[in-house]
Specification:
By secondary structure, the protein is α/β, with parallel strands linked by helices. The chain contains 9 helices and 11 strands. It has helices at about 45-50, 55, 60-75, 90-100, 150-160, 175-185, 190-195, 205-215, 240-260, and strands at about 15, 20-25, 30-35, 80-85, 105-110, 120, 135-140, 160-170, 205, 220-225, 265-270. A 7-stranded mixed β-sheet has the order 6-5-4-7-8-11-10, sandwiched between helices. A 4-stranded antiparallel β-sheet has the order 1-2-3-9, with no helix packed on it. The longest helix is centred in the last third of the chain and has 20 residues, at about 240-260. The radius of gyration is 19 Å and the shape is globular.
């Protein structure tokens, strides 16, 4: 029996790829991996320090700047009270702290953190009780790991103050990078596809499916943009010098083209919680 779409609950899903058990919804365009919980990637200190070291060592400060600047404009004269969900090592919060020492900053993740002026919470976001409300909530590269996206978004919304704002960054599975990987996969070249659709990502959002998710959970979408991550943050095969250089050149070329056509491999959506 084929699974329902986790975004729109449609039964118009088709299996797009057999090896990794990937499905696509013909209603909202969402792509997802049907996988048992025990087979999903585990999150611990090694996930941050070893498995995805490039990602956590090379933060997207251009994106940080965009979100901080946009937050100031949206809040006008209000002081920032921000929660970063899935904060990792707290790099975004440290960035805001340096820019705005008066901001009240909170982060939650499965690992322990400490930093002056930032309140860190260790635990599972979906299980942890948080009594404070926030006027800004951010979440970078988390929602693609979540089994139940609606449960995740509803909790984010509940923690927002009326007229609060939500910034979510995730993958863009309709990007040039993902489109090329799918073509290569059909031709029998699986490397790029397997890296992008590996088991640590179980939701693969298009612009349409991410917007559909937010609107179905009662948020007003203000802005949605596609972009790329820093080149240094990209995980590449590191066991052969020549292959690594070729891989990086190909990624750089795809990034250049996707910037021109605004179809970068990541997307950020900005939403507002209405006062009603």
């Amino acid at each position: 029996m084929k699974p329902l779409c986790p975004i729109c609950q449609s039964d118009r899903t088709i299996k797009e790829e057999n090896r990794l058990n990937i499905y696509k919804c013909n209603s909202c365009s969402h792509v997802f991996t049907a996988i048992q919980k025990e087979k999903q990637e585990k999150y611990n200190d090694d996930y941050f320090m070893e498995t995805h070291k490039n990602w956590f060592d090379n933060q997207d400060y251009e994106l940080f700047s965009f979100i901080y600047t946009k937050s100031l404009k949206l809040l006008r004269d209000k002081q920032i009270q921000l929660l970063d969900v899935g904060c990792g090592k707290g790099d975004f919060l440290k960035y805001i702290r340096a820019k705005n020492p008066a901001a009240r900053l909170f982060g939650i993740d499965l690992i322990s953190n400490q930093y002056p002026g930032i309140h860190f919470i260790k635990g599972n976001f979906l299980e942890k009780k948080i009594k404070i409300k926030f006027n800004i909530i951010s979440s970078f590269a988390v929602i693609e790991h979540v089994d139940n996206p609606h449960l995740f978004v509803r909790k984010l919304k509940d923690l927002l103050e009326p007229e609060g704002f939500l910034f979510i960054m995730t993958i863009n599975s309709n990007s040039l990078m993902y489109s090329i990987s799918r073509l290569l996969n059909k031709a029998g070249i699986h490397t790029a596809y397997d890296r992008l659709y590996s088991l640590h990502h179980i939701q693969h959002y298009t612009n349409k499916s991410l917007k559909t998710l937010m609107e179905r959970d009662g948020l007003d979408v203000l802005l949605q943009k596609n972009h790329n991550r820093p080149m240094k943050a990209v995980d590449v095969p590191g066991n052969n010098f020549l292959i690594e250089k070729i891989y990086k050149f190909l990624v750089w070329t795809i990034f250049l083209l996707s910037n021109l056509f605004r179809c970068g491999m990541d997307q950020t959506i900005v939403c507002k919680k209405s006062s009603s």
